[in-house]
Amino acid sequence: MNLGEIIKTTLTDMTIISAITSTVFIILLGYFCRKKGIFNKNVGKILSNVVLTVSLPALAFNAFMQDINPDSLKESINVLIWGLLIYIILIFVSKPIFLKFKGDQQDTLRVLTIFGSTTFFGIPIATAVYGPQYGATIALLASVFNIGYRIFLYSYGYIKMSGLKMEAKNIKSMFLNPIVIATFAGLLIWIFQASLPQVEVAVQVPKDIVDGKVVSETVMKSFAFLRIDQTAPWLFKPLTFLAPLASPLAWLAIGATLGEVSIKTAATDKTSWFYSIVKVILVPALNIVLLAILTATGILPVSFAALATIVIMMATPTATVAAAYAISFDKDALLASNASLLSTLLAVVMMPVWIIILEVISKMGLF
């Protein structure tokens, strides 16, 4: 299959197209509702809080409610390592990229480039696009990858923008927010499930195929008592309703936020446009190149599922916390606001492009 046929197949894949249109249309719906006054000025913030404190923690925890195997464990370790390495790489790479800018402006542009909205923007899109194909694996890899993001955002990001040493409040923010708690709780259960006290549970397993239908039988199987998907389905079931809310609510919040600001004013800022191109195009491209090299050489191999998750999460606009740092510490707050807006607009436009590029990479068998 040549490149033209691969692109054609990708562009006619209704699963991919539907995922892209769902993202764009719901963001536009949020924008329309805000412009028409259906949403008031607080809706974007309220929806964001719901996503960050309820839906995404449920999504992160649920992802680890699965059996462990050597391959998934090895891949998760590789993704965790890359999730730490990429931020160290970006700290150094961002310096020459913004070398012509000085002082607070350079610091702001570098921090905004290093830290994207991986949690609020990236995870919902990655799980919506690739969830049907890879299931909970995408959410698991995204949660593991985001550990490095949290560590560096609340340490390096804070120190760089504030000019101060690390404070206790940021250590608290790093480890005690709902998403981090849910991620580490799920991760520890997943890794150590074989060592935890076991509970016998009746489960349905395939036995035979009769007239094209799968016939199952009930068998007893042991699970760690904290695997609530098996041992306490009455407790796990509410989480399965909350987790899927992350994507639509996040997209509505993004649209509502865009409807709150002046796009025309921000569009005249050339520096913000330069930043946005670096953040939404150069950073994910850098990840693809480096991961391709590491996978080909066997140094740090990752699957296509991991690559797609990482690229989607890195092709995101400015992180809310990073922009808040710039505003709080008066580090060119206007630039941060304009950059946040333009990078969000560019990310909405580029996300379908990245998804298509990733599908081309997949069909070419590069990962």
Beginning-to-end CA distance, first to last residue: 16 Å
Which CATH class is shown?
Mainly Alpha
What is the residue-mean pLDDT, rounded to a whole number?
A: 84
As a whole number of angstroms, the C-alpha radius of gyration is: 21 Å
Overall form: globular
The name of the CATH architecture is Up-down Bundle
**Regions with little confidence, pLDDT below 50 for 5+ residues:** none
CATH topology: Na+/H+ antiporter like fold
Kindly estimate the percentage of residues that lie in beta strands according to DSSP.
5-15%
Name the structural class: mainly alpha
How are helices and strands ordered from N to C? HHHHHHHHHEEHHHHHHHH
Helix % is over 70%
Tally of DSSP β-strands = 2
**Strand line-up of the largest beta sheet:** 1-2
Q: Count of helical segments?
A: 17
Q: Total domains, how many?
A: 1
Q: How does the major sheet shape up?
A: 2 strands, antiparallel
Task: Annotate the secondary structure layout.
Layout: H1 3-11, H2 14-35, H3 43-63, H4 70-97, H5 103-114, H6 118-134, H7 136-162, H8 168-175, H9 178-192, E1 198-210, E2 213-224, H10 228-231, H11 233-242, H12 246-258, H13 263-266, H14 270-297, H15 304-314, H16 320-328, H17 333-363
Antiparallel strand pairs: 1-2
Helix pairs in contact: 1-17, 2-12, 2-17, 3-6, 3-7, 3-9, 3-11, 3-12, 4-5, 4-7, 5-14, 5-17, 6-7, 6-12, 6-15, 7-8, 7-15, 7-16, 14-15, 14-17, 15-17, 16-17
